[in-house]
Amino acid sequence: MRAFARRSPLLGIMVSLALTAGGQSGVKVEIDEVVDNRMSEGPMTGGLELRVKLSGSGLDRVTAARLLVKDARDDGGNALGKQSGPDDFTPREYNSGTLSVSLPSPKRTATAARVKGTVELFVPARDPSAVVKIDKGLAKLDAPLSAKALKAAKVSITPLSPAGYAALMKARKVTPEDIEKIRARGKAEGVPEKEIELAIGLAQAFDSMDAEPPEGTVLLSGKEGDFDRIFRVDVLGADGKPVDMTMRSTSTRGEDSIMTLQPSQPLPANAALQITLLTDKARMSVPFELNVPLP
C-alpha cells in the first residue's frame, strides 16, 4: 500500500458580496492548506482535505460561515464525490476563521482538482428577527418559550425543570416493546441479524448515558428540526452579557432533541435567554470556484 500526505498553501479567487443592503464588500476566498492523502490498496482510500480562509472587508459582521461543495473533479474530469463530515456553520472565532472540507481522494495520476460550490455566510445584523431575547426565560419551566420571533420562525423550545427532564428521560427509555419493534422492522427489511442486534445494543447504550445533570444545568427540549434552525443559545447574566458555559451539547433521538448548557457560575433568578436563529435573511451564499494544484 502506498500513501502520501502533503500540505500546500495556495491562493484562491476574489468574489464579491453585499454584507449590507446598500454596499459591496470584496471578500477573498483562499485555499489556506491542502492535505492530499491518497491510498491505493484495500478499502482505505484516503482523502483530500482542504482548509479555506476568508479575508477582506465586511467580515467583522459575519458571525459564522460554512463551505458547501457542489462539484469537485480532478484534472482528468473524474468526479471526486460528495464532501463528508458535518456541514454546520462554524463560528468565525473558531480555528482562526478557517473552514475545512473533506473530499474523496483524486486518482493517483491527478495533478490538480477543480472545486466549485458556495461559501454561506451568517450575518445576524441583516435580520432584526435573527436574535431573539426572552426576558426571564427560565422563570417558567416545562412550558414552550413565548416570543413572536420564535413563533414566526416556527421554532418551539421548552426549558425543562429537573422533574420535567426526568419525565422526558423516562419516556425516552427503550422498552422491551421498542426492542421487539426494532427487531421486527429489521427482519421485515431484510437486515442481517448481526446488524439488528447492533442497533438494539446502541439503543440500550444511549439509555445508560442519560445521567442526572448537575445542579444549575440549563436544559432545553424541542424537535431536531427546531434546533437545526438555531445557531446559538445564550443565557444572559445580570450585566446583560452571555454567561460563560463550561459545556454545551445536544443529544437527539428520533425527532426529539435536548440541549444541555452548564454555566460556569450560578445564574440570576431573572436570567434572560438569547436565541440566535439561522434565518434566511441573515444568510448569504457566495459562489466560488478554486483550481487546486495537488502536491
Average pLDDT over all residues: 83
H/E element order: EEEEEEEEEHEHHHEHEEEEE
Structural class: alpha+beta
In the CATH classification, which architecture of the largest domain applies? Sandwich
**Fraction in helix:** 10-25%
Question: SSE layout and pairings?
Answer:
Blueprint: E1 3-7, E2 13-17, E3 25-41, E4 44-56, E5 64-74, E6 90-91, E7 99-103, E8 112-122, E9 131-134, H1 148-152, E10 158-159, H2 162-171, H3 176-188, H4 193-208, E11 218-223, H5 224-228, E12 230-236, E13 245-253, E14 256-263, E15 272-277, E16 283-293
Antiparallel strand pairs: 1-3, 2-3, 3-4, 4-7, 5-6, 5-8, 8-16, 9-15, 10-11, 11-14, 12-15, 13-14
Would you kindly provide a written description of the structure presented here, covering whatever features stand out?
This protein has 295 residues and is of the alpha+beta class. It is 17% helix and 41% strand. The protein contains 5 helices and 16 strands. Strands 1, 2, 3, 4 and 7 form a 5-stranded antiparallel sheet that branches. Helix 3 (176-188) runs antiparallel to helix 4. The longest helix has 16 residues, at 193-208. The chain is flat. It starts with a strand and ends with a strand. Residues 1-25 have low confidence and may be disordered.
Structure at a glance:
The chain is an alpha+beta fold and 295 residues long. The chain contains 5 helices and 16 strands.
Write a concise keyword list for the protein shown above.
disordered N terminus, alpha+beta, 295 residues, 17% helix, five-stranded antiparallel sheet
